[in-house]
Amino acid sequence: MSINYEYYKIFYYAAKYKNFTQAASALGSSQPNVTRIMKLLETELNCKLFVREPRGIELTDEGKRLYAHVKAAVIRLEHVQEELSVRMPGTGTAVIGATETALHLFLLDALHEFKEAYPKIRIKIQNHTTPEILKNLAFGRLDFAVLTTPFELQKSFVSSELLTFREILVTGTRYANLAEGTWQIEQLKDYPWVGLSKETATYEHYKQFFSERQIEMEPDMEAMTSDLLIPLIRNNFGIGFVPEMLAHPLLQRQILVHVPLACDLPERKICLVFDKDRARNPVSVELQKYLKKYILYTDKR
């Protein structure tokens, strides 16, 4: 039998995502092309590999057997390719996804030092919300991601904690009186609040926080990215939660005012995430090691 290995590569992604459109996106192809090639493969093998369901596609028994073998072969080939494609130290490209919070808390500083040490390595940064970054990682558009909790991972993703941080409640000078005393969160519900939009992990984080206290809370002013929070708060649009490390210099200059709370805010984490089922770019592997060492030998933790 003459084997077209490209067909099996496309089958692997179609079976992995159980969706021809997502497979096409991961492959940089089109949905009609993926559909056409899967029909050709079924014709060549003389069996049906997929059945259509309301929410996508499912593998037949024959499809499941084929996927088990193809998955193992693809992973082995990608690992061999990784070993053979290792470049000379100091060259290559890494594509990473990062949240605004991760960038400002440590990643920009860490990448600056990395570029000083390895000036010929190219780094491409995609800055999105946590859900969007995870989607791009699943589609193979990123080598790895640096994310802010909370998030949910698919089975093939591996996560390791880089650092923890806490947020504090702050306001602009208009509500400077809130610096006096210690407040129950319920006492502040009638003040205007500034927060991130529903598409972000931070929104879900604080939705849960308020829900546990039986408080219904929606921001009066929503920002799409966390780098807009502090400008909105310092310009007196309301009160809001920001990372303590970012607020500290503005508190010292009395541009922001700390609002003391009677309860502790939940700790949050910044994590490094990659897909173990994909071949790992040697340059990105070295960058991941560097980031972990950077955290270990600085006071960022």
TrEMBL record:
Keyword Signal: no
CDD domains: PBP2_LTTR_substrate (cd05466)
Family: Belongs to the LysR transcriptional regulatory family.
Cellular-component GO terms for this entry: cytosol
UniProt keyword annotations, A-Z: DNA-binding, Transcription, Transcription regulation
Name of the protein described by the UniProt record: HTH lysR-type domain-containing protein
Origin organism lineage: Bacteria, Bacillati, Bacillota, Clostridia, Eubacteriales
Keyword 4Fe-4S: no
InterPro entries: HTH-type_LysR_regulators, LysR_HTH_N, LysR_subst-bd, WH-like_DNA-bd_sf, WH_DNA-bd_sf
GO molecular function: DNA binding; DNA-binding transcription factor activity
Residues of the HTH lysR-type domain: 9-60
Pfam families (UniProt xref): HTH_1 (PF00126), LysR_substrate (PF03466)
